[in-house]
Amino acid sequence: MADLYLVLLHHPTVDKNGQIVTTALTNMDIHDIARSARTYGVKRFFVAHPVKALRALALKIMQHWESGYGSTYNLTRKDALGLVRLELDLDSTLTTLDRETGMRPRLVITSARGGGERVTFEQLRQELRERPEPHLIVLGTGWGLAPEVTERADVFLEPINGPTDYNHLSVRSAAAIILDRLCAPR
Amino acid sequence: MADLYLVLLHHPTVDKNGQIVTTALTNMDIHDIARSARTYGVKRFFVAHPVKALRALALKIMQHWESGYGSTYNLTRKDALGLVRLELDLDSTLTTLDRETGMRPRLVITSARGGGERVTFEQLRQELRERPEPHLIVLGTGWGLAPEVTERADVFLEPINGPTDYNHLSVRSAAAIILDRLCAPR
Predict the structure, then answer these.
(1) What is the pLDDT of residues A137-151, one digit of tens each?
(2) What is the pLDDT of residue B30?
(3) A residues 63-82 lying closer than 8 A (beta carbon) to B
(4) For all residues of chain A together, what is the average pLDDT?
(5) A138 contact partners, CB below 8 Å, separation of at least 6
(6) pLDDT digit string (tens) for B29-83?
(7) Is B119 helix (H, G, I), strand (E, B) or coil?
(8) Which residues is A46 bridged to in the sheet?
(9) E strand segments, chain B
(10) How many CA atoms lie within 13 A of B177 on its CB side?
């Protein structure tokens, strides 16, 4: 069984006009995705943001739940936030993973948009059971990951399709569904 | 195919000590769950809160996205928020549904906790395809729905289980996973 990691990227992402932007770091993203990651056995959840001051702010809020007042008020949050590591970008995340595991993970790129050669959830679910390398699922913010990131995919995962043509889930909801499809017991 | 509705209840819910409480109305819950509801073809998403001032505040924020500046800035949000109706509680929601559909929906109660006679996701998925009545999925906030609500279940849905024993997903993530399990095309 492959070890599963998640990274949430805030740069380089695109805005609704396709321009490359850096998105804001959202406290709720960290909390929600950490709880989903904890539920589905993800080894670590990296939150990557290039702005040092925003990483420092995120760390301060996390410390409230991990060692401050929140750590006694809500133990389940402390437990989930223990999976979170702040990083600069995708490359710094890969460096950290390489240092810790001695392996380069397969990059699983996600996107709400269709197109390109895509791997189905079912295929990836199977591969996670059969392959030994760690897998890093890359999630974008804003209107999605920039092409320079998606081009690095070892696995380009199919979009989440509901029965409608609407494809604007929040990244928090998308992360939950992706982990459920890949990791839920059957 | 049964029409599917969602309601998010803020009262009566329990806190971490099992006391009956009214939880705060959270803007992010409305946005995230509306987007998931829109993705999976839910007919309407009711947000029930007993405090009039909080319903008024929620309405004001929704109007920003539906007819204010936000409606031109982000069309996809307007689209999703069009599904939302503010209600007082479960009974006012049922009255609204009865007036609109002329039918009493089957109440599908959700809970992160195990125990009791539970219906599996697979069973409910099948029933949604075979039964004609509308189904109303009831989601709780805080530490979950109060017993007086869960006792009214026509369908008491099994909890979402990952491969770990951690069962503290956010209600936003839980709603997304529930809809995906019940409504995603296969």
Answers:
(1) 999 999 999 999 999
(2) 96
(3) 74, 76-77, 79-80
(4) 95
(5) A7, A9, A90, A107, A108, A109, A110, A145, A149
(6) 999 999 999 999 999 999 999 999 999 999 998 888 888 888 888 888 888 999 9
(7) strand
(8) A7, A85
(9) 4-9, 13-14, 20-21, 44-48, 84-87, 106-109, 135-140, 155-156
(10) 33
HSE, side-chain direction, 13 A CA sphere, residue A88: 6
The interaxial angle of helices B171-183 and B27-39, nearest 10 deg, is: 10
A17 touching chain B per CB within 8 A: no
Residues linked to residue B86 through DSSP beta bridges, in sequence order: B47
Q: Does A8 touch chain B (CB under 8 A)?
A: no
Mean pLDDT score, A35-40: 98
Q: Cβ–Cβ of B173/A36 closer than 8 Å?
A: yes
Contacts of A31 in chain B (CB under 8 A): 170
CA distance A135 to A121: 14
For the beta sheet containing B4-9, the strands, ordered from the edge strand earlier in sequence to the opposite edge, are B84-87, B44-48, B4-9, B135-140, B106-109, B155-156
Would the pTM of this model clear 0.90, i.e. be above it? yes
DSSP states of A134-163: -EEEEEE-TT-B-HHHHTT-SEEBPPP--S
Contact A74 B183 (CB under 8 A): no
pLDDT of B136 higher than 90: yes
B165 exposure class (CB count in 10 Å sphere: 0-12, 13-18, 19+): exposed
- Pair A35, A84: CB distance under 8 Å: no
d(CA B180, CA B106): 19
Q: Which one of A1, A161, A173 makes the best mutation probe of the B interface by having the most chain B beta carbons within 10 Å?
A: A173
Instruction: Provide CB contacts within 8 A for A153, sequence distance 6+.
Output: A107, A108, A109
Summarize the confidence of residues A72-99 as an average pLDDT. 93
ipTM entry = 0.96
